[in-house]
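Running this now, will post back.
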Amino acid sequence: MTSIDTTTVNYGALLADIRHWGAELGFQAVGVAGIELDEDETHLLNWLDAGYHGEMDYMARHGGKRSRPADLQPGTLRVISARMDYAPSGIAHAWDVINDAERAYVSRYALGRDYHKLLRSRLQKLAERIAGVTGPFGHRVFTDSAPVLEKALGRNAGLGWIGKHTLLLSRDAGSWFFLGEIYTDLPLPVDAPATAHCGTCTRCIEICPTHAIVAPYKLDARRCISYLTIELRGSIPEELRPLIGNRIFGCDDCQLVCPWNKFAQSTPEADFAPRHGLDGAMLVELFAWSEQEFLDRTAGMAIRRTGYEGWLRNIAVALGNAAPTPAIIEALRSRAQDASALVREHVAWALRECGRKSAATPDAS
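Update: finished.
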């Protein structure tokens, strides 16, 4: 990192400016943390040792860089952590979609533009404004794009506490927000870490469809629907498929029941608004998309991460969990000979589920 003359900068005043500039750039909160993460490193290592990361081998491969910012970016003294809300205005209707088995539920964060580029761009602009005061300084911008313990750093920067569901929670904004960071060599004043306010509440643990929150503050990603529908590239374990319901990309149940989210505000960012009706689309319609349609309609969206094959796999599971209507059975049969063995396997399972349900239902005639 580039060294600067620290005697010529009023860092208290600069931090006040950084918060002001952050607000102008669309961030709802900005804080500063130090780089000491010893306890969080121990928690991370124990989590990895338990195998809770599943097939996310990169979590272990990065070693200490995730919990030691100066190892990832030499010279780092502070981390500027910024929060940007993403909840679309229709967030209140999420349960209506989840409870309609013929509709597809997409995690609310993924309904609009992929947040990575937007946050990185805003953080870079923030860094440029800082440089206007300090001159060139050492820094690097991150948005869920490198081995960064963003929730621990956000907590230490005073943006919120880590809840029992392992997400960051704010008393003022709940949990519907993205985080981004600027690693810097500027000796900025640090904020007081946020204190925890989950109390005795266990709603997030109780609501988890697959019981992935195995204990307070401990998530087994191998059971998490977000992992199963996004990160996992192979076959979804059969015993977990019925528990997924109609959630085809991620899961928000633990956030939807959290009492603190009554304070969440709708995002002012037009880029985060739902696209292509994906906040409540019919499963059979999405299952009919060709690969080109999938690529065209998810351009610039986080949904791209699952890939077309994963998209069809996930929807097949959701269709198998719905009532076996003629339209659903026809949709599944249309892909029974799909080119992908992964898709064929999940379609075959879904058709068996439809057959089982039909056999268990008395003939109304």
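The first helix runs from residue 11 to 24. More later if anyone needs it.
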